[in-house]
Design a protein that fits this description.
A six-stranded mixed β-sheet has the order 2-1-3-6-12-13, with helices on both faces. A four-stranded antiparallel β-sheet has the order 8-9-7-10, with helices on one face. It has a three-stranded antiparallel β-sheet with strand order 4-5-11, covered by helices on one side. The protein contains six helices and 13 strands. By secondary structure, the chain is α/β, with parallel strands linked by helices. The model has no long low-confidence stretch (mean pLDDT about 95). The protein has helices at about 5-15, 30-45, 55-65, 105-110, 140-150, 185-195; strands at about 25, 50-55, 80-85, 90, 95, 115-120, 135, 155-160, 175-180, 200, 205, 210-215, 220-225. The protein binds D-4-phosphoerythronic acid (DER). D-4-phosphoerythronic acid (DER) binds near residues 85 and 99. Keywords: Isomerase. InterPro entries: NagB/RpiA_transferase-like (IPR037171), Ribose5P_isomerase_typA_subgr (IPR020672), Ribose5P_isomerase_type_A (IPR004788). Pathway: Carbohydrate degradation; pentose phosphate pathway; D-ribose 5-phosphate from D-ribulose 5-phosphate (non-oxidative stage): step 1/1. Pfam families: Rib_5-P_isom_A. This is Ribose-5-phosphate isomerase A.
């Protein structure tokens, strides 16, 4: 089975966690596109009543187009459940996110959610984190910050769009991706990064997720709580 149908399988399964009347944080990326598709169907066909809270402008537009009422994170009292994707999840449920350039809003929505669920295909699971680490930074002083990260041996690269221009996030910040042969302890690395002036947030999501839904090659679904 190809990865797409595993993402679809897991995405549709995750959408079943959403109940009528919920405020739902909606993640970003190609796996979550299936969650949005499934929720849109239920809104249109079953009259599901939910409030969606987006983790990116792209998600806001995609969900709204399918008839899901979208609200900003500050316009709801609380978020009952957030369903998002991830780039890599290790055996302690620590994750790297941000491959889709949405890590800041994803983390803002996650920390304001009663419950966080991640939906992945099996290829995202790893016994330790090896994926590049996205870091969102303020444009003013970005070049100096890039050099400081280089000096630390973190092998930074600019996140570029298909025209080779630096990507701007939904908060109009830049993204730098860090590369490690052996990643330092995630919690320590995260604290170090957010203590650097000009760093807004990083893609290490630690002690965030409550449940992980995995679409397996043999089309089974594993759920880890
Ligand atoms: O940026 C993110 O963290 C997204 O959730 C994303 O990286 C997951 O992307 P995918 O579902 O398209 O693999």
């Amino acid at each position: 089975t190809d990865q797409t149908s595993l993402k679809k399988l897991a995405g549709y399964r995750a959408a079943e966690l959403v109940e009528d009347g919920m405020v739902v944080g909606i993640g970003s990326g190609s796996t979550i596109a299936y969650v949005i598709e499934a929720l849109g169907k239920r809104v249109a066909e079953d009259g599901l009543k939910i409030k969606g809270v987006p983790t990116s402008d792209k998600t806001r537009r995609t969900a709204a187009k399918l008839g899901i009422p979208m609200h900003n994170v500050d316009d709801v009292d609380h978020i009952d459940i957030t369903i998002d994707g991830a780039d890599q999840i290790d055996e302690n449920f620590a994750a790297i996110k941000g491959g889709g350039a949405a890590l800041l809003w994803e983390k803002i929505v996650a920390v304001n959610s009663k419950r966080n669920v991640w939906v992945v295909d099996g290829s995202k699971l790893s016994d330790h984190l090896t994926h590049y680490l996205p870091v969102e930074i303020i444009p003013y002083g970005a070049d100096q910050l890039f050099k400081r990260l280089e000096a630390k041996g973190y092998k930074p690269t600019w996140r570029l769009d298909q025209n080779g221009n630096p990507v701007r996030t939904d908060s109009a910040n830049y993204l730098i991706d860090l590369h490690f042969n052996q990643m330092p302890a995630p919690f320590t690395l995260g604290r170090e990064l957010t203590s650097m002036v000009g760093v807004v947030e990083h893609g290490l999501f630690l002690n965030v997720v409550d449940q992980v839904i995995v679409g397996r090659e043999d089309e089974t679904i594993d759920i880890f709580d």
